[in-house]
Amino acid sequence: MKPVIALVGRPNVGKSTLFNRLTKTRDAIVADFAGLTRDRHYGNGRQGKHEYIVIDTGGFEPDAASGIYKEMAKQTQQAVAEADVVVFVVDARAGLSAQDHDIANYLRRLGKPCVLVANKAEGMKEGMQLSEFYELGLGEVYPVSAAHGQGIRGLVELALEPLHLPDPEEDAEEADAGVIKLAVAGRPNVGKSTLINTWLGEERLVAFDMPGTTRDAISVPFERQGQRYELVDTAGLRRKGKVFEAIEKFSVVKTLQAIESANVVLLLLDATQGVTDQDAHIAGYILESGRAVVIAINKWDAVDEYQRQLVERSIETRLSFLKFASLHYISARKRQGLGPLWSAIAQAHKSATCKMPTPVLTRLLLEAVQFQTPKKTGMYRPKLRYAHQGGMNPPVIVIHGNSLEHVTEAYKRFLEGRFRKEFNLVGTPLRIELKTSANPYADKDSD
Fold first, then answer.
1. What residues are designated binding site for GTP?
2. pTM of the prediction?
3. Could you read off the pLDDT of 50-90 as tens digits, one per residue?
4. Which CATH number, 3.40.30.10, 3.40.50.300, 3.40.50.2300, 3.40.50.10260, labels domain 4-163?
5. Which class in CATH covers the domain with range 358-436?
6. How far apart are CA 434 and CA 400, in angstroms?
7. Domain edges within the chain
8. Which residues are annotated as a binding site?
9. DSSP secondary structure of 55-87
């Protein structure tokens, strides 16, 4: 599973700027819990072979008694509990503050791996100006400039070093090819554990999350009609009376990691609530991860005809980017609609691992061009010459030719539709990469 890095610090020390540097984007997945004013932001990062999840938090006041600061402190405490390593960000220019001492005391008590980072350190000498931060008792102070991108690569190496991560390629080789990893993802209380318990025929999924172990999803082996599965529940249920105040019932990190490691994701929605912002965020992450997906609307028996129409409309509008996924209406408690669900999961996995021969892809490409040529842009008309498969899970089709940078998104969707129809690709994203051949005359001076 991807390691998790949490960014912690008082307000205005540059955590969000550092978050954007580490994820190389301004996009974030937000855990939008009702009633909370400040949320945690989640993003993906990569350095070399290793990928990681970054959590950005609001300003942290560990001892906040009430109001917005108490809610922000809860969010930060949850992020720290989910993390493998904490990056404590201080302001090199503003210097040490009492609030920095409070945060350092809190982090020392947890005993979790921690990297102390002095941000905004561009143009500063590392000696005297940073020496005051050694008072925090967290070891070496690592200077960076998130705004200018200085020291970011070294920071990631420093953060990941104590985790002793295995080589991702070795992990892939160890995976059992005969087992389909199926992650059941969705918001809290949509019926994820009820569904898996129904499949298993017993009450298997009751978990107790201690702080520091909240990132572990619950994995259960399962076999159906000769096919082996590994069911991953991301709910993290607790026994009654065993809930820690600082730890939320829903771990976003757990869901993100389960999605990343799965072959197929079952996105479970609640018919009584429709498609919420959080559902759309999770769906977006599934698409970004390239995972095969099946959508199931649970509690379908609990809504009337009018509510059903509202749910169907909200799916069409808010989850339109998952049009390739099959849609099923079920009741986990009453065991309704579960048979077709397994057929859809098998179809999605088959589509995600489909092998597409180069001659067939090239023939389809040339037929598509003959049927509808790409639009001319200025002096250039893209010329698409041949195609081959560039990967699986999700399937990737690489198209070679000339002036392909002028191919429009609409034309790529047209090509995608032709490929999907030929190979019956249902339930998986399909990525099309365009590679333009180099112009042999580009570097020659004109006479």
1. 9-16, 56-60, 119-122, 186-193, 233-237, 298-301
2. 0.69
3. 888 888 887 776 665 555 566 667 777 877 887 889 999 99
4. 3.40.50.300
5. alpha beta
6. 6
7. 4-163, 175-351, 358-436
8. 9-16, 56-60, 119-122, 186-193, 233-237, 298-301
9. EE-----TT--SHHHHHHHHHHHHHHHH-SEEE
